[in-house]
Amino acid sequence: MRINEFFSSFIKIHILHHCLKEEIYGVWMIEELKEHGYKISPGSLYPLLRNLEEKRLIRSRTEQMGKVKRKFYRITPKGKKELTSAKIKLKELIGEILK
């Protein structure tokens, strides 16, 4: 599946949802999205994460794990607010579409 603007929005909501539940990291998120039918490469995911961080919807911290540095992401208060708003709009849209 090609990641276009439409699916990019779904992926961003999915990322915020998981960042609310727990800290996430890129490789884990790629696998999680794969389980839902999204095939996304690191070259597509990491710019999305960077964009969400620039918008202050998530924040990151870097941890050294042996020879590997891993970036962990967590939702911010602004991100929680945006996610809540998106859920309300999604619920309304899904209700209308599935009538």
Automatic annotation (TrEMBL):
Taxonomic lineage from the root: Bacteria, Pseudomonadati, Spirochaetota, Spirochaetia, Leptospirales
A matching Pfam family: PadR
Organism: Leptospira yanagawae serovar Saopaulo str. Sao Paulo = ATCC 700523
Superkingdom, taxonomy of origin: Bacteria
Entry protein name: Transcriptional regulator, PadR family
Domain Transcription regulator PadR N-terminal stretches: 15-84
Signal peptide span: none
InterPro entries (UniProt xref): Metal_resp_DNA-bind_regulator (IPR052509), Tscrpt_reg_PadR_N (IPR005149), WH-like_DNA-bd_sf (IPR036388), WH_DNA-bd_sf (IPR036390)
